[in-house]
Design a protein that fits this description.
Blueprint (H helix, E strand, L loop, with lengths): L11 E5 L4 H12 L3 E6 L5 H5 L4 E5 L5 H15 L4 E4 L15 H29 L2 E6 L12 H21 L4 E8 L5 H10 L6 H10 L9 H12 L10 E4 L7
Parallel strand pairs: 1-2, 1-4, 2-3, 4-5, 5-6, 6-7
The structure holds nicotinamide-adenine-dinucleotide (NAD).
The site of nicotinamide-adenine-dinucleotide has 28 residues, from α1, α4 and α6.
């Protein structure tokens, strides 16, 4: 692998869900490229390892809480003086069940975390970037935001909404020089996929066979790695992407090329 560039040198980035698969690799990618990071996740969600990296301040918080977002923003300003980037990565898969059987409380929770969490992040952190006339926001959508997903109706709806929020914010924030993009990964090798596989397996379909079927549904023939998504996010945060805004970018081994 080539050496990471200094593309994020001097930049301060907030990453949510930073203890998870894609979040922790995004934090690692950002500090490797010279950035400083405020890493946020729920208590007990694996922030310890991320927190031990140089240039990282870790904070427990829930993306659905306005008060927690205000604490995260204050931590970025107190520790590093500003904010240049925001990665709304926290997300949950919810239940894996047909729409007509989907539990209402779970539907509400998925929309709360995956949609309201992203909206609150942009609403509370956005003004700091708008005031300075520069910044980049990256929101985690999914290939399930580009088309339907059987038995994942709430998740798919939430990821479609993330794309709508991202494009709307891109239009609103462009005059102030703030860019907003969504990334749309296919299955990526993290806890979330292990949970989805667990719920999908049956007496007729063991875990190995199912993983092979999922990999075969991706033209490049494999799951993506969380670091590969982290690399794309870091590119979007950097000035190398300075004319890229309002996009929903698949990172999916050509899954959505069909
Ligand atoms: N893994 C995949 O196949 C895949 C594919 C497409 C999109 N995504 C999206 O990428 C993002 C990261 O997923 P991942 O695969 O790394 O999963 P993950 O479960 O490893 O990480 C998600 C992180 O979000 C955190 N989180 C959940 N609810 C939160 C809340 N209310 N407040 C703060 N943090 C919260 C979790 O604690 C966890 O650390 C998610 O938005 C997910 O929907 C993942």
């Amino acid at each position: 692998m080539s050496e990471p560039s200094n593309a994020l040198a001097g930049k301060v980035i907030i990453v949510t869900g930073a203890g998870g698969g894609i979040g922790s690799e995004t934090v690692r990618g950002a500090v490797d490229r010279g950035g400083s990071v405020v890493a946020m996740d729920l208590a007990g969600a694996g922030l310890d390892q991320t927190a031990s990296l140089d240039g990282v301040v870790a904070l427990e918080g829930d993306v659905t809480s306005t008060a927690d977002w205000e604490r995260v923003l204050a931590a970025a300003i107190d520790s590093f003086g500003t904010v240049d980037g925001l990665v709304n990565n926290a997300g949950i898969e919810g239940a894996i069940t047909p729409l007509i059987e989907y539990p209402e409380a779970m539907f509400d929770r998925v929309l709360d975390v995956n949609v309201k969490g992203v909206w609150l992040g942009m609403k509370i952190v956005g003004p700091t970037m708008l005031d300075k006339g520069a910044g980049a926001i990256v929101n985690l959508a999914s290939v399930a935001g580009l088309g339907g997903a059987s038995n994942l109706s709430a998740y798919s709806a939430s990821k479609h909404a993330v794309i709508g929020l991202s494009k709307s914010a891109a239009l609103e924030m462009a005059p102030s020089g703030v860019r907003v993009n969504a990334v749309c990964p296919s299955p990526i090798d993290t806890r979330m996929m292990r949970s989805l596989e667990e719920s999908m397996k049956s007496d007729d379909l063991d875990l190995d066979t199912m993983q092979q079927l999922i990999a075969a549904s991706i033209p490049l023939g494999r799951y993506g790695q969380p670091s590969e998504v982290g690399d794309l996010i870091c590119f979007l945060l950097s000035d190398d992407a300075k004319f890229l805004s309002g996009a929903a970018i698949p990172i999916d081994g050509a899954m959505k090329a069909r």
